[in-house]
Amino acid sequence: MSNNNKNMGVISTNNSEITLYIHTDNRLAKQSIAVAEASKAITKVVNLNEVQLTETQWADLADLLNVKVHELVNFNHDIITSKLGKNIDVEPNQLLKLLSQNQAVLKHGIAVRGEHALFITQINDLMQLQESDSGDVKIP
Question: Is 51 helix (H, G, I), strand (E, B) or coil?
Fold first, then answer.
């Protein structure tokens, strides 16, 4: 069985774990992994080149990010333009199906820690998820 057909279970959230939903073959992804591993949190990497998320999981991630489904999608990606042309007026369910079948169209990697999620657009974005580490520091 090919790794590309692996389905992942339910999106789990944990305050002591940073989960990265990324394509691991780019520089920002590799830097993101290093930053997450440097935190006190457990780091879990979901390599979207190998693990296929379901439509429900993508919807859950959009909810965690507090964005609409269309904000997950890179409408300039070749896959999108070949299937939709310039028509970005697409139902969310259609976009979820397209995203689950073509994860390369994800606009940005996603990081989740507990109930907090963010797009990874630059390496400093992950610093927002490390703030909860300061809870371990006793303030006199």
Answer: strand
Mapped onto helix, strand or coil, the DSSP state of residue 39 is coil
pLDDT in tens, 98-114: 999 999 999 999 999 99
- Give the model confidence (pLDDT) of 39-65 as tens digits: 888 999 999 999 999 999 999 999 999
How far apart are alpha carbons 83 and 86 in whole angstroms? 9
Q: Phi and psi for 47 in degrees, rounded to 5?
A: -80, 110
CA 37 to CA 18: how far, in whole Å?
Answer: 9
Give the CA angle between residues 33, 112, 24 to the nearest 5°: 35
Distance, CA of 20 to CA of 111 (rounded, Å): 5
Burial of 130 (0-12, 13-18, 19+ CB in 10 A): middle
Angstrom distance (rounded) from CA 90 to CA 69? 10
The confidence score (pLDDT) of residue 130 equals 76
- Tell me, what's the pLDDT at 10? 67
Structural tokens at position 38: 């440097």
CA–CA dist 15, 91 (Å, integer): 33
